[in-house]
Design brief:
Layout: H1 2-6, H2 8-18, H3 28-34, H4 37-48, H5 53-74, H6 84-94, H7 98-103, H8 111-119, H9 131-147, H10 157-169, H11 184-191, H12 199-213, H13 219-223, E1 230-236, E2 244-252, E3 263-268, H14 270-282, E4 291-293, E5 299-303, H15 306-319, H16 330-342, H17 347-354, H18 359-373
Antiparallel strand pairs: 1-2, 2-3, 4-5
Helix pairs in contact: 2-3, 2-4, 4-5, 5-8, 5-9, 6-10, 11-15, 12-14, 12-16, 16-17, 16-18
């Protein structure tokens, strides 16, 4: 503790460690070197304010990148607030034109800045950054500036114009979060790989079925699900078939809901059976629903990391003979709406389950499904 008080880097590392339960940090020592005392205090303040875990992780990641870039590009830590010239420099370094770079080697990010970022593991791909990444980092920069009680120039005409012109000069095809949707047929192939009565299969089957049938839940919502959020409901009767088990999932506050909203979705039938089978086999009566399993078959007390949900989707896709690179956890979300469209489920009903707030975004899946099977796409069929 004494050394932590004497050494600024050790002191920051200690402070970062105190928020690790809310903000898991794999590169703590590196962050302690990069971030300033004020940076760490800002992060601690955000934790105390109750900011969402995923938002905090993104802010920390962006802040580390921005500090590394500033040190490489200006040999100084980030100034607060940032002058307009520095914001324009950031845009110029990250949104550039490949064709112009061939004509002018000084166009875009300078080689020494690029080399420094690459050596420290902050830059992996070649070429200009995706506009969405640049805009997100600028938004994080702006947020952190406001949390320091300062006014930034992120909305200045010069900065907005620079971003708009740079994006126009370097058009990029918008990438989907998951290249392919996990529709009903794809899901069936993945579930076929979870046929054994072993804990890992029972867990992964429950994750896939719950993630899809609950409206395509986000990976953070699946990983963070707790037993206390599940409520057994009255069985559902469907025509002459035996009643189907039903339960409600109280999501609480989600990415698109207000702070006071309690989002609720429902599961009926096979997904409930799959979830109950996992809970019974893993002997989970409270706490986190989906947990890690070690090589000896012991179930951890800790919840799965959201990234693990993504890894499970990719693993099961590969085991099913599909290309894992084409699928991700978000494919469950896009797949749910795509499958609902294919089966003729009314859009408002599907949105009640998916909890989409944007009609435009949700209707995109419906429009695409209609266009694929419509007459206009089958003129030569």
């Amino acid at each position: 503790m004494k050394s932590a008080g004497r050494n600024p880097v050790d002191r920051r590392a200690h402070k970062l460690d105190t928020i690790a339960a809310v903000l898991p940090i794999e590169r703590r020592e590196e962050l302690a070197e990069l971030l300033t005392d004020q940076d760490v205090e800002t992060l601690r303040h955000l934790v105390n304010e109750g900011m969402g875990d995923n938002t905090l992780r993104a802010l920390t990641s962006d802040l580390a990148y921005l500090q590394t870039w500033s040190l490489a590009a200006t040999h100084n830590a980030l100034p607060w607030p940032a002058p307009e010239a520095l914001l324009l420099k950031f845009v110029a370094h990250h949104l550039w034109d490949r064709a112009q770079r061939e004509l002018n080697p000084d166009h875009g990010m300078p080689p020494d800045v690029e080399r420094s970022l690459r050596e420290q593991g902050f830059l992996r791909n070649d070429g200009p950054h995706a506009p969405a990444t640049v805009q997100r980092r600028l938004a994080s920069w702006s947020t952190l500036t406001k949390w320091r009680g300062l006014d930034g120039l992120f909305s200045s005409p010069a900065v907005k114009s620079a971003i708009r012109l740079a994006i126009r000069a370097t058009p990029r095809k918008r990438r989907r979060k998951s290249a392919k949707a996990v529709t009903g047929d794809v899901l069936a192939k993945m579930l076929a790989t979870c046929a054994r009565a072993e804990l890992r299969d029972l867990r992964d089957r429950a994750i896939l079925m719950l993630g899809f049938a609950s409206g395509g839940r986000r990976r953070s919502e699946i990983a963070g699900l707790r037993r206390e959020q599940l409520t057994v409901e009255q069985p559902v009767s469907v025509e002459d078939d035996p009643p189907l088990p039903s339960l409600s999932i109280h999501l609480g506050r989600t990415k698109t809901s207000g702070t006071e909203d309690d989002e609720i979705v429902y599961l009926t039938g096979r997904p409930v059976e799959a979830l109950n089978a996992w809970l019974t086999a893993a002997k989970i009566e409270n706490g986190s629903v989906f947990r890690g399993i070690d090589r000896w078959g012991n179930v951890s007390r800790r919840p799965l990391d959201p990234k693990a949900i993504n890894d499970i989707v990719k693993l099961r896709a590969g085991m099913a003979g599909l290309d894992p690179s084409e699928f991700s956890a978000h494919g469950l979300r896009s797949g749910y709406l795509t499958e609902a469209a294919n089966r003729g489920v009314p859009l408002p009903e599907a949105m009640e389950q998916s909890r989409h707030r944007s009609l435009q975004q949700a209707s995109g899946y419906y429009n695409n499904a209609t266009r694929r099977s419509g007459k206009a796409a089958r003129l030569l069929s």
